[in-house]
Amino acid sequence: MKDLVFATSNKGKLVELQGLVGEGVKIASLADYPQLGEIPETADTFEGNSELKARAVAMATGRWALADDSGLVVDALSGRPGVYSARYAPTDAERIAKLLAELGGVDDVKRTARFVCSLCLCSPTGEVVFTRGTCEGRIGHAPRGAHGFGYDPIFELPDGHTLAELTHDQKSGLSHRGHAFRLMVPELKARLGA
Ligand code: ITT
User: Where are the domains of the chain?
Assistant: First the structure.
């Protein structure tokens, strides 16, 4: 497989993607291209933002670029934080505390939520392909588990475990990013010989 640039500065996402594609594939990330700086995420959809990131990196590097835009959609908050999940508060701990505070007093049955992931692959000439994955669950009452990143410690699966209580492999098997990536693999194979 030719090298791919994963347009992310989120180490958690990079670790997950590397786990999904295996050790044999070299994945560069934005950490390898510090001159690119911050890519503005100005769209109001997951697809729009993943395309902005993938296109900016493919155009700037002349290489195939893959970008993920993802977030947590909470039904009791009319879909918030959604595309603003990374900007909801400054740190993971503050984002979790703010979400739990906003859901204070909301019954378990109304705490349904889903992670959404849009993946966009962009060629050096600007051709784009999208896949999307989701993961259904609900927001717990307190953080549990030490794995994963972001909102994982408060995102409960139907069996009661949080995503942060799963290993990488277990999370990838059922996560929004795992589903989106497995749909992307044939697209990568067709275009890059992965
Ligand atoms: P890049 O744009 O550099 O990829 P980011 O962290 O800013 O990194 P997003 O704009 O896609 O990424 O924001 C997604 C946020 O949603 C992320 O920071 C987490 O807070 C949350 N999130 C996404 N996927 C998650 C997951 O698998 N587990 C927990 N939280 C997740």
Answer: 2-192
